[in-house]
Amino acid sequence: MKTGVCYYPEHWPEERWARDAAQMREMGLSVIRIGEFAWSRLETRDGSLHLDWLQRAIDTLHAEGLSVVLGTPTATPPRWMLDKYPDMLAVDADGRIRDFGSRRHYCFSHEAYLAECRRIVEILAKRFGEHPAIIAWQTDNEYGCHSTSISYSEHALAAFRRWCETRYGDIDSLNTAWGNVFWSMEYDSFEQIGLPVGNVTESNPSHQLAFWRFSSDQIVRFNRAQCDIIREHSPGRDVVHNFMGNFVEFDHHDVSKDLDVATWDNYPLGFLTRDNGDAGDQERYLRTGHPDGSAFHHDLYRGCCNGRWWVMEQQPGPVNWAPYNPAPVAGMVRLWGWEAFAHGAELMSYFRWRQAPFAQEHTHTGLLLSNGDTDVAAREVAELNRELADVASFSVDDLRRNDNPDVEPGQTAATDSSVTNSTERVLSALPVHSKIAIIFSYAGNAIQDIQLPGGSTYSPLGFCQRVHSACRQWGANVDILSPDASLDGYSLILVCSSTEDDPDLVARLQSAHQQQGCVIALFPGTGSRSGEYRIPDALPPGHYAQLLPVQIIRSESVPSQEVLTATGSNGRSRHCSQWREEVRSSIEPRMRFADDWGFHYEQHGVHYINAIPDSPSLIAMMGELLQDAGIAGRDLGPWLRTQRIGPYRLAFNFGPRPVELDKELGSTLDFHHDTPLLVGSRTLDQAQVAVWVAE
Ligand code: GAL
Prior knowledge:
By secondary structure, the protein is of the alpha/beta class. Strand 20 and strand 21 form a beta hairpin.
């Protein structure tokens, strides 16, 4: 794994650039992202281009041996663009124009703005496409950030009507698909269709889902236009985009089909304080982030571009945008780096090089203070880079357990430069092998978001994260897959957001089950709606009933403090809340709730889990599923996490107290009393990392 940083040469005097570049190299950084917000300096007025400064900036970085990821500047159209196209701005749900004065002020459906983007991207790609420093291009910046996936502009309306025409062909088919006979919502022509906003009460969920799909497709189209131009003029370079955390407003799997690498922007503390509604989590993980928060996204984005993924922006210290912006505990920046390595990142790039003394993000930390002195994160990043280089230089074969008499338990091995596991290409990573797959569907997630079946406290994405977290607590590697990904080689497949009844996925699950004997678990809502938001004719779970004979005849939601306990004949119980389904089945359930509704149906290794378990119950159930699937695991508790990558296994302590690895891991998870550590010690303090060679 390489490390890098996001750099804004246009923010600093040119005389400083060479010193910055030299200092980046000294810190061990090698990949520098630049340019993504620089349009007003690249084209000061319409057609008035100034590319020489960017050339000099790239040359300066190149002179230090640094590689460059060049961002296209389309997230920040300059002010003159608005004089040219006053109607290019997006419109929010209240009909307000999302005006100039920050960023992302454009509507994805504005054709003339898209043409301007094509023009500037072509200019940049032609000029810099074959520069030897450039290894990749980033398209735009964080599609959808600041709620910009959706626009209710006139341009969006016109484009949506055309999109509907293409999808449904004639208006009667649309009326039938959406069930518009309900409340006399039928249209006579596509020109009558409005956007699902501003209705007296909620808009038709079919209409909302169609608009979600349309908005996602507009982003795919916008992104593809840039990718095509870059590929034409900059052969051999990766094309990437930086996705966000906890963000599901468009289908990232669809956008990723046009990318070489999925990258994402990781702000663990910001995400915790902004997005995690659990007060206990907020307190416990304030300065470390949730132990599975980064891991979930690493695993999710690893599934987007055939395993290739980067962290494009990594939190270095307090940020500026969450309700609270705490400083990470000492060591955390280094830990996040090792964690990304463990999940297969090719690149860990920090945001940003130097704190800006001006504008919206002037309280956002960087690797340097605004005066240019080094900040805490810079020291941790330099340490990480030294350790990464060390580990890459160890001979893995010599370090297998018991093979190296010179290495005492707990002692770091001597360097052997004869064998190296470091990357060969500019960017590549070791393989991550997982026996567990979670299938994540963005459209399925949208279906649940549109009409929350689990009540107002239920979050479909949040539940999927809890399922992932429960697997992680057993020490397992997890892949998160798109619904059309290959299921080969998995022993346990968890389906927790595939609300859309998807016969193709069902057929592939069936063959994975028959041929690999894998265990499958389906969670509430699976297959409960057609792609047009109708209940399947045969009732939920639709085609999934081919996997086991269950039929959902009722679904209820209750407040999260309402605990529903299911008990089995063996006296064991599980606690659930939020959402529960009543199942009709020839299978005897493993447990029953007090009112006799069954809970947890299983036949030949296919499970239907028809309620939302609380965390202890979910973790216990996951332990059983792992065991059924023959996956070794050990309950690591809330703080300790581990991940296997290539020949290595790593352990991370997110908790406030030291962890004894010998006690917590016993002789499991590739760890034994005589396992030598490459990094760290057997007593793992808070925010500390251990690395060893796995079996
Ligand atoms: C990201 C964004 C960056 C910067 C950063 C601050 O969302 O891509 O440009 O704003 O947040 O944390």
